[in-house]
Amino acid sequence: MERMTAWVHGFVQGVGFRWWTRARALELGLVGYAANQKDGRVLVIAEGPRDKLETLLTLLRSGDTPGAVDLVVEQWDSARGDLTGFVER
């Protein structure tokens, strides 16, 4: 199990982006959250199998999200196991 931290840049607040991300993550069986940041980005923290996390990352970059994603910067770590469900924050 791994942990992906993704900073999503672009027009991603107030457009249903966190809800959409939550729905995709739950479909993939991931746990974590999506949270608006004061600077306009959305922070996505997700844990699960690497292949499922990579699928979520591909979806975040797909151009089929609500709003408009300009850039996604990700970081990989070992899963901490401290998350349950997938929520919008």
What is the number of strand segments?
5
CATH architecture grouping? 2-Layer Sandwich
Cα distance spanning the termini? 23 Å
- Share of residues in strands: 35-45%
Total individual domains: 1
Low-confidence stretches: none
Alpha-carbon Rg, integer: 12 Å
Average residue-wise pLDDT: 98
Task: Please characterize this protein's 3D structure.
With 89 residues, the protein is an alpha+beta fold. It has a single domain, classed as 2-Layer Sandwich (Alpha-Beta Plaits). It is 25% helix and 42% strand. The chain is built from two helices and five strands, in the order βαββαββ. The chain has helices spanning 17-27, 50-60, and strands spanning 2-11, 31-36, 42-48, 68-78, 86-88. A five-stranded mixed β-sheet has the order 4-1-3-2-5, covered by helices on one side. β2 (31-36) and β3 form a beta hairpin. The longest helix has 11 residues, at 17-27. 29% of the residues are buried. The mean pLDDT is 98. It catalyses: an acyl phosphate + H2O = a carboxylate + phosphate + H(+). Pfam families: Acylphosphatase (PF00708). Belongs to the acylphosphatase family. Residues 3-89 form the Acylphosphatase-like domain. This is Acylphosphatase.
Compile the SSE list and pairings:
Elements: E1 2-11, H1 17-27, E2 31-36, E3 42-48, H2 50-60, E4 68-78, E5 86-88
